[in-house]
Amino acid sequence: MDRASSGLREGEPISFERISGDAGTELAYIVEIEWARAKVGGSDEVSPIPLRVTTIFRREDGEWKVVHRHADPILSPRPIESLVQS
Q1: CA-to-CA distance for 33 and 1, rounded, in angstroms?
Q2: What are phi and psi for residue 7, nearest 5 degrees?
Q3: By C-alpha distance, which of 60, 59, 52 is closest to 78?
Q4: Which residues contact 8 (CB under 8 A, 6 or more apart)?
Q5: What are the angstrom distances between the C-alpha of 36 and each of 30, 50, 54?
Q6: Which of 9, 28, 41, 44 could staple 23 via S-S, CB 3.0–4.6 A?
Q7: Three-class SS of the chain
Q8: Tens of pLDDT, residue by residue, the chain (86 residues)
Q9: Whole-structure pTM value
């Protein structure tokens, strides 16, 4: 988390848009669009930061604990060719 947040400062969450989610007896997941704003890198401008986030939870001792979280900035469909790196 320290590395992931090292390029951001003076930020705050704005909203969370739930896309999908489900829970069983031991595991659960949510897929959301997280909207935040922060100063990115060396910029002095506050910028909107949308992230597509998947979070997986596991029940431990009667409480839900985060066991995996993945976030990326991809919010729109991309052509399959975008996977190829030259």
Answers
A1: 18
A2: -95, 5
A3: 52
A4: 38, 39, 40, 49
A5: 18, 6, 16
A6: 28
A7: CHHHHCCEEEEEEEEEEEEEEEECCCEEEEEEEEEEEEEECCCCCEEEEEEEEEEEEEEECCEEEEEEEEEECCCCCCCHHHHCCC
A8: 677 677 888 889 999 999 999 999 999 999 999 999 999 888 899 999 999 999 999 999 999 999 999 999 887 888 888 888 77
A9: 0.75
Token digits of residue 77: 């469909």
Tokens 């951001």 sit on residue: 8
Token pair recorded at residue 19? 């896309």
Question: Tokens 């009667």 belong to which residue?
Answer: 62
